Amino acid sequence: MTKLGIIFGGRSGEHEVSLLSAASVIRAVDKTRYSVVMIGITRQGRWLLYEGPPDAIEDGSWERIAETDLKNDAEGSRLELMGDGPGSLKSRIDFALPILHGPYGEDGTIQGLFEMIDIPYGGCGVAGSALAMDKILAKRVFEQGGLPQGLFIPLLAEELVEDWDGMMQKIEAQVSYPVFVKPANLGSSVGITKAKNREELKSALVIAMEHDRRLLVEQGIDCREIEAAVLGNHRPEASVIGEIIPSAEFYDYTAKYLDGGKSRLCIPAELSENVVNEVRRIAVEAYQLLDCCGFARVDFFVERGTNQIFLNEINTIPGFTKFSMFPLLWGATGLAYPDLIERIITLGYERYQAKNSRQAALRLR
Hints:
Blueprint: E1 2-9, H1 15-28, E2 34-41, E3 47-50, H2 54-58, H3 62-72, H4 89-92, E4 95-98, H5 109-117, H6 126-133, H7 135-144, E5 152-156, H8 157-162, H9 164-174, E6 179-183, E7 193-195, H10 198-209, E8 214-219, E9 223-232, E10 237-245, H11 253-257, E11 264-266, H12 273-289, E12 294-303, E13 309-315, H13 325-333, H14 337-364
Parallel strand pairs: 1-2, 1-4
Antiparallel strand pairs: 2-3, 5-8, 6-7, 6-8, 9-10, 9-12, 10-11, 12-13
């Protein structure tokens, strides 16, 4: 039986979201095919083996349980990231499925670890993960690819600290209020603020600076928030299209995870066939431009009145909670949650085997 390592938690500001997503995945995995090995990463970066119910992952008590197990059975609960001994990560799992949102999980770092120790894994590789996580770099690539985007201004925290008034004037010369301010390297709407005037803009920038030194200011658009899910390696496919109708002014962290499902998801989105087809086309093209593979969710804005499409961003490890758009979109497309996980694992093995086949072919030349 395949030892499936589900890795959750992490050091990012999206730690709690990862716990919710991972618990949902663990419950859905086909236990007749996979032996689930649960590995949690604390906010301090400690890796711990966990054996217990998914409920304890959701409420955060998994960490106390794992620490107690390690204290009582240091040898049996030992986990080493490198090497191939009895307690090593490589010996404990056959396949890694990282359910880690944000930095140190979705940005290519943990994918690089799996590459180094030669463990097949689900989702995007190092380059695709790193590019998609960095909103500024992703937008530059989309720009070069000619994909439609809203107006954006990249900034550095150091520039703001050196000359707040000058940078405020620079921003206001390029965009009009309202604007959205984001850290370049976070997801789940962490650190994102809507600003309607200069005072709110400065406060929003300070909030974003708490999360990253690289910041993004985007022109606000009177829009509908549209999302597509993508699966595949060299021949990716897009799901049906969904629309988010947020409970808040925009789809922020609270609206996504803490409002008890008050935000509405409309699947399929009520859009014309032409708009739907164009969103799906752009989703696949954006996915390929960033060298994504495995799976991702692609987010869009569709302007009210004009139906003009703006590509927003790609999330390479989207939410997997019961409220999350990604599994719901594939469910509406005909792929049930357990089958979706199976497909992600299959795609991970497919990429791993293709890489090894290329390396074997080169050795024979």
